[in-house]
Amino acid sequence: MPAVSSAAGLLALLAEPSDDLKQHALSHLNKVVHDYWFQISGSIGNVEALYEDDDFAHRELAALVASKVFYHLGELDDALNYALGAGSLFDVEEQSEYVTTLIARCLDQYFENRVRQSEGRPGEDQVTIDPRLTAIVERMLNKCVSAGQYEQAVGVALEGRRLDKLEEVIMRATAGEERTRVLKYALRVCQQLIVSRDFRQQVLRLVIRLYESVEAPDWVDICQCLMFLDDAPEVARILNKLLQGGQAEELLAYQIGFDLVENELQSFLADVAARLEVPPPPQLASAQAAGGAEASAAPAEGAMDTGAPATADGAAGPLAARLTKLHDILSGKAPIALYLDFLYRHNHADLQVLKNIKGSVDARVSVCHSATIAANALLHAGTTVDTFLRTNLEWLAKATNWAKFSATASLGVIHRGHLTQGRALMAPYLPRGGAAAGGSGGSPYSEGGALYALGLIYANHGHDIRPFLLESLRGTSNEVTQHGACLGLGLAALGTDDEEALEDIKNVLYSDSAVAGEAAGISLGLLCCGSGGERVAAEALAYAHDTQHEKIIRGVALGLALMQYGREEAAEGLVEQMTRDADPIIRYGGMYVIGMAYRGTDNNAAVQKLLSFAVSDVSDDVRRAAVLCLGFVLMNVPHQCPRIVALLAESFNPHVRYGAAMAVGLACAGTGLKEAVALLEPMLSDPTDYVRQGALIAMALVLMQQPESRVASFRKRLDKFITEKHEEVMCKMGAIVAAGILDGGGRNATIGLRSRSGYFRRTSVVGLAVFTQYWYWYPLLYFLSLAFQPSALIALNSDLKMPKVSFGCNCKPSIFAYPAPLAAEVKETKFKVPTAVLSTTVKAAERQRKKAAEKEKAAGGGGGAAATGAASVTPAAANAGGPEAKPAAADGKAEDGGEKMETDDAPAVGAAKKPADVEQSSYLLENPARVVPSQARFVALPSNGRWLPVKRESPLGILVMCDTQPGEPLELVSAQGEGAGAAAAPAAAAAVAAPAAAPAAAGAPAAGGDTEDEPAPPAPFTYQP
Q1: Where would I find the 26S proteasome regulatory subunit RPN2 C-terminal domain in this sequence (predicted)?
Q2: C-alpha of 931 from chain center
Q3: Burial of residue 342, with CB atoms counted within 10 A of its CB: 0-12 exposed, 13-18 middle, 19 or more buried
Q4: Cα–Cα dist 997/959, whole Å
Q5: Which tens digits make up the pLDDT trace of 44-83?
Q6: d(C-alpha 308, C-alpha 151), whole Å
Q7: How many CA atoms lie less than 13 Å away from 566 in the CB half-sphere?
Q8: How many angstroms separate the Cα of 30 from the Cα of each of 25, 53, 72, 136?
């Protein structure tokens, strides 16, 4: 067909009565519509009429032309409607902007309608979807599958809520590695992108069913999905099956156990452990008991031995031994003991930091005194090293009342995870009626703090300590002791829904004591964490309306938020009820309900609600909580949080600015994001003291375990805040706590929000939520230790022992090295310094002496004068030139002596010629190794050799290794318990030794100076004015 310069002639043919002419016109208009759509738009009515004419045989062609015209007019909905009417003529495989745009519009409409249809919102039950729209989407799915683009097909199926199509896509993938890859992708997308909790669970069920049908199922991923679905019986069945298999299956069962423990769901793990097959026979139990007695005698050795009962194999057979080891893993004994050993072994806490803080703050200011104790606890969290407290007992004794409560509780943070000796360590402080033999009781503040400390030690693993805490709670009427007992019991029984404990906690709550009632409200939330606790929640909320104590109302409000942890849409009823309440404290709790229910979901509706309250509520507390809780909702997308709260960080309201700082700190904890640091940096100079406090703590959370090159400048800022005498107390407190956070866990811990499998660690999120309540109650600051996760890579063999194995790290050692310890400040001792004589002066004197000697020789009497001249120069030369100068002067060799006088420059010249040491670009890490999160991408797991990992994942946490050479001699890492007495406080020993050595070094020059003669007085001279 010749080139067309106008569409007028073709449009005229549309008015002809012949259908053939109309069809001819439409077919040619379809070819030129993108060039002459503006002309065709004037006659679009004729084209539409042809489409609506049922008797016209080519109405689909008319619909296609009309669709393209409306597309150019910008009416995408009309364009899509006519494209659907075009049927098969609308080619979804055509590579054009028109088709791409309409396909995107088609998918958006389909997804929106499917979501409304599947979620069944009120008033939207009768949503109908155009079958033509469905046909287009299914054609797109087929196109993706045919092209091997399974990821795109999985995404379309999930967005469209089409489980049937998801199953079809996965099953059409090639059996083997291809299908496993598609399943892994579907699982990852399901965890991270699906908003609806109910649909997410349906997808997980489908993925599990399909996973089990492949030749080599990934049992680790399957068990993680089952844990999310709370299907303990199925997990127990899989573990039993693996334990009865060969060695590879046994090791895989142990790895699954360690991965499940990382998610910290105490009640779920207890259910799985209870469903495992018959426990070991009595002989094994007695052997375990004997092993436990030995462990209690040697705490550190016991910590290493809890995971590997060596006597089990011969006593009750291999299956019983395997079950025993798996029970130790699921109960938390084995992993906690390994991490405890790691933190003690690698402790690099610098006591000089604490000494500098202690020397800079006034002990009479209780806030700074308590903050220093808290910093020490966080600095040594989990290391069991309490040297600083033991060496400063007189200073520590200045804590009184609630400060004493906090100081005692800090021991729980230091000894966290010491399950075998926790109660014995706290025995001197525990209530007299329930303490071990030798416990003498004492102040109710010490007793309450000790009970709180027990909760911190046994947090999330409190089966053994629960009876004692219950007994202590029932046996006291003192509100301070009840306060500590409630917090300790809630921590020890976290998320267990323990009915007996709930009744006792409610009795304390209803006693209407402000101090005890606040802790009881929080404890209710800890006990029912994540379960919703409908009956308990309704009673607690009703009581919050009845009581007059703000502390009780606030404690109940926070407890209600913890009950809704991870419940998402199921919490909407309580959210509406609390956010519409007239009491600002209840609304404050409503903000935390949103944050906890939608933690890490990036839910748009939750973000919109929080932003709305952040700018509209009349209460500053509510606005602050609303902004802060954005950090919990955005935990899974930390890079978005600074952008979302950027404007709020510049608000005129200081409470909103504080909330923005803390939101960034919570969402970006341990990431070191540059955007987060850039947002927090200006807030360190905020005019309001508590905003600076929040910015300091948030910055410390963000920079934990980051390379020292990025942290050094912040350390200097902290030191300046702490030592500045005129700094506000609130700001100084924030700097002290930030110093403890920055080096948390002996510089071996970070904020672990997620496990390696990608699920959020419940204990960490709950710990951060309660930690933010330090705004009202300082003792709650210790909840931050629950979020600490050791930066460890620990390799184990089949006996759960640590073999000697190395891991390659492909980066320079200095990048992720520990920061250098601070040097102790040495007071300089003043002493008399001999008069310095410059080398040029010595040379000039030597030249004068030489000239005088020559003159004397020429005059015939130079011997005595030369000797006299040499004798007069020798003392000065000796002082100036050192040992090298003396032979030159004695020999009388002027030229040689002149050259030898420049001894100070000679070493410098030699050093310049010596090549500088070049830092190696890679190095080896020995098991157990410290691997910070940002270092993991540089660490390579062994791919050949004797020890190979059962499952190749990120090199973090505990990895079970397979021994490929079982007949060879086995080298194990020695336990630290043998040298515990000698190495109890290596940092303290170094810190004590440094000041002792420094005066000696400073005194050495003074002693040397006293042995030298005083310089000769100047020669007599006549003063000439």
Answers
A1: 792-973
A2: 13
A3: buried
A4: 43
A5: 888 888 888 888 888 888 888 888 888 888 888 888 888 8
A6: 43
A7: 17
A8: 9, 19, 13, 21
Q: Between vectors from CA 470 to CA 410 and to CA 455, what angle results, nearest 5°?
A: 20
797 secondary structure, DSSP code: -
Dist. CA 577–CA 560, nearest whole Å: 12
DSSP summary character for residue 275: H
Q: Is the pLDDT of residue 905 over 70?
A: no
* Percentage, residues of the chain above pLDDT 70: 82
Residue 150 in contact with residue 227, Cβ under 8 Å?
no
Q: Which helix (H) or strand (E) holds 179?
A: helix 177-193
Half-sphere exposure of 83 (CA within 13 A, CB side): 26
Q: State how far the Cα of 175 lies from the Cα of 210, in Å rounded to an integer.
A: 11
What's the pLDDT tens digit per position in 512-564? 899 999 999 999 999 999 888 778 899 999 999 999 999 999 999 999 999 99
| Sheet with 923-926: strands ordered across | 923-926, 806-809, 939-940
Amino acid at 134: T
pLDDT in tens, 244-289: 888 888 899 999 999 899 888 888 888 898 888 754 454 444 444 4
In angstroms, the CA 234 to CA 36 distance is 65
Which pLDDT does position 408 carry in this prediction? 93
Strands (E), 721-809: 749-751, 788-790, 792-796, 806-809
Three-state DSSP at 434 gives coil
Classify 454 as helix, strand or coil.
helix
CA distance 734 to 698: 10
Per-residue confidence (pLDDT) for residue 78, from 0 to 100: 87
Distances, alpha carbon 245 to alpha carbons 249, 319, 322, 439, in Å: 5, 10, 11, 49
Burial label, 678 (beta-carbon count in 10 A; 0-12, 13-18, 19+): exposed
3 state DSSP class of 582:
coil
Q: How far apart are CA 635 and CA 665, in angstroms?
A: 10
User: Please, which residues bridge with residue 793 across strands?
Assistant: 929, 957
Can you read off the two tokens belonging to residue 901? 């006088």
Element (H or E) spanning 974, and its range?
A: none
Say which residue the tokens 């995404």 belong to. Answer: 155
> Token match 């086995």: residue?
970
Taking Cα atoms as reference points, which of 480, 780, 482 lies closest to residue 469?
482
* DSSP-assigned letters across all residues of 339-400: HHHHHHHT----HHHHHHHHHHS-TTSHHHHHHHHHHHHHHTTTT---HHHHTTHHHHTT--
Q: What is the pLDDT of residues 958-986, one digit of tens each?
A: 999 898 888 888 888 887 643 343 333 33
Map tokens 């700001």 to a residue: 731
What average pLDDT does the segment 391-404 reach?
89
Per-residue pLDDT, 656:
95
Q: What is the DSSP secondary-structure string of 615-657?
A: HH-S-HHHHHHHHHHHHHHTTT-TTTHHHHHTTGGG-S-HHHH
Helix (H, G, I), strand (E, B) or coil at 127: coil
Strands annotated E in 698-778? 749-751
* DSSP codes, 710-726: HHHHHHHHHHHHHH-TT
DSSP string, 509-568: HTTT-HHHHHHHHHHHHHHTTTT--HHHHHHHHHHHHH---HHHHHHHHHHHHHHTTT-G
- pLDDT tens-digit map of 856-888: 777 754 444 444 444 344 433 344 343 333 333
Written as one string, the DSSP assignment of 64-96 is HHHHHHHHHHT-HHHHHHHHHHTGGGS-TT--S
Own/partner pairs for 535-539, CB < 8 Å, 24+ apart?
536/502, 536/506, 536/563, 537/563, 537/574, 539/506
